[in-house]
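User: I'm preparing a small set of examples for a lab meeting where we compare how different chains pack in three dimensions. I only have the primary sequence for this one, and I'd like the structure in token form so I can line it up with the others. Please keep the answer compact; I'll paste it straight into my notes.
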Amino acid sequence: MKISGNNLFVTAMKKEGVDTIFAYPGGMVVNLLDALHDASGIDLVLPRHEQGLIHAADGYARATGKVGVCLVTSGPGATNLVTGIANANYDSIPLVCFTGQVPEHLIGNDAFQEVDIVGITRNVAKFVIMVRDREMLAQRIKEAFYIARSGKPGPVLVDLPTDVMAELGSTSYPTEVSIRGYKPSTGVHIGQLKRAISLLKKAEKPIFLIGGGVNLAGAQEELTQMAEKLNVPVITTVMGRGAIDTEHPLYFGNIGMHGCYTANRMANECDLMFSIGCRFNDRVTGKIATFAPNAKIVHIDIESAAISRNVTVDIPIVADAKLAIDKIIEHTKPMEHTDWVEEVRSWEKAYPLGIDVKEGVNPQKIMETLNEVYADHDTIFTSDVGQHQMWASQYLRLDATHRLIQSGGLGTMGFGLPAAVGAQIGCPEKELVSISGDGGFQMNMQELATGVCQELPLVCIVMNNTKLGMVRQMQTQFKNGRYTITCLAYHKSCKGKCGTPGYVCPAYYPDFVKMAESYGSKGYLVEKDEQLKSTIEEARAYAIENKKPVIIECLVSPDEMVLPWIPGGKSFDDILL
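Assistant: Understood. Below is the structure token output for the 577-residue chain.
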């Protein structure tokens, strides 16, 4: 018996355990969607824009640990995925993106909605391929899922010409994959690990620097066990936050540009930096020549190319974070670094995090109220990109039942809301809170409709300072307050009048409360701290009861800045408190 490539695609999805496909229709996938129409056990989710679609698949993958699956048409459908593919690639998120393509005989002829999506995405995806042979379709799909989830995870794009998908062929689907030249590391080099442990035994001021790789590996419990056994203080990158309970006595916060004073000073004064699952990007290191100047550096990462790429290390170990931590626990005895831990605690007491506001809602208070309201609920927070993201990473309490999903390496505005949609679809038993700024929220706010139609009880916090806050912060500090196109309330008639005595700014649009109502839901406005708890509790109850996303607009002063702050390219000595 022979079946079409479209019908084989359905078989492949079931064999790979796919239960959700984030899809948008178009001419080059209409036959494929028809094949999926009656497929039991596979839900098709229709977002309102392909960029929202891939961010939703990304959020689904981060929340569930499964591969996120996208399906879009050719041309603009495919190109609208590019930012999301790059975003997932930077953060090592497993996605398989299927794009429809014009028939093979039209490729290269400037056909309607034809683009070379393989060429476009080659440098921002883990792997890309066009399927040109119907008999290789099953093998290519199997390989796509294997590549996406194995080794260092990442996005894979598979381009599907309509004529290949219409062709009849075999019904079989492979059970194993063997790709020449692609053999991800599956073990730990014990010799290198023992060398690293010997440095740990000699160190007087060791630290664990933990990146997002530990969260991706699901090694939170093992990391905590290791830190407690060795009594070594832990700091994290923004993406590593939550790898250990943020209230744990050995945890001292985020390192980097907007990390806390204590964590950055620890990196500056440690004699051994034991890094696991961290890329050492510029937001972490600042000026590389002065980064961790007194330290020997051990670097454990699943990707060999990431080791010594930015920071030269003393002992490289290519390994999965969870396997490596397990081996460290196995090959070590309890250690004492009490004096060092107490010294670090004294810095934390001397330089605590805190925001003192003169007007508007306190960003710190927003996060602390979320901690209070959701303390007893299994919750996933998603963040957009900007000042609110840094405040969320500074003040949200994260542990085994409270996680934060955010865009790290690419820093993609518009990520937060669609990621929350995907995470809630993947984890209906958990509660979801999306945290955005007014700028980032407007980049993909159409996905509120997806949340309504999917009956998702999302709580959307929109921190509205009427500005593109992170860039405005840079303009305040380095451009003498010359605020070029960072005011979201700016009208053409404002030109030459901004900041002049007596000038009244025009009204701000949109009205987020009314916007929520226009989607058949409910919006809330918070203008002072005292309203926060009651409003969040009421909004949460409404969302759950009505199975609809709600918006809570919090009015934040545009003058609030994210501090501490190590300006780009600077060192710990230049930290702004």
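A couple of notes for your slides: The longest strand covers residues 95-101. The CA atoms of residues 77 and 522 lie 31 Å apart.

User: Perfect, thanks.
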